[in-house]
Design brief:
Layout lengths: L3 H13 L4 H12 L2 H6 L2 E6 L2 E7 L13 H17 L6 E12 L7 E11 L3 E12 L2 E16 L4
Antiparallel strand pairs: 1-2, 2-4, 3-6, 4-5, 5-6
């Protein structure tokens, strides 16, 4: 049986979880200028206020000698996910730079792809602190393969 009120509630919740079109465009434009993300084959999967998901397909070019996604690739997409999560909460004229981050590799990064989720824990005028999670994803589900924390600093956008 169809329930229009429930369907509308689910639709409203999904929209609330999306950043504004202007923020999404700013994040995607910036991401498109990242040579490393392009080189790795990573893409942004979701942009919400204070939360960004980046997906990296598992393929031979990003693996280490045992066939798992390399820790460098895993760490790189985690760093970018956190940075863009922080950027969603700063004004249009701001950029962010990572000041420090720590990542724990909990399990081999295996699956069809890995997904990094950056979530802002605290955002101030100048600094933001983010939680970083990376999951190995395959048909059978998601497994946490890495987690960490990151501090970012807000800087003024420079014209290049």
């Amino acid at each position: 049986m169809r329930c229009p009120l429930k369907e509308q509630y689910v639709k409203d919740q999904a929209q609330q979880e999306q950043a504004s079109p202007e923020v999404r465009e700013r994040i995607r434009d910036s991401f498109g200028r990242q040579g490393l993300m392009s080189h790795l084959g990573a893409r942004i999967a979701h942009i919400a206020p204070g939360r960004v998901h980046i997906v990296l397909p598992a393929r031979p070019e990003v693996t280490q000698q045992h066939g798992y996604v390399h820790a460098g690739a895993t760490s790189a997409i985690a760093d970018s996910a956190g940075g863009y999560a922080a950027l969603t909460l700063f004004p249009e004229d701001a950029e962010v730079l990572t000041v420090e981050y720590k990542i724990n590799l909990l399990a081999p990064a295996a699956g069809d792809h890995i997904e990094a989720v950056g979530t802002v824990l605290k955002s101030g005028r100048t600094l933001a602190v983010c939680q970083l999670e990376v999951f190995g994803v395959q048909d059978s589900g998601r497994k946490l393969v890495a987690n960490g924390q990151q501090t970012l600093i807000r800087v003024q956008r420079s014209e290049r």
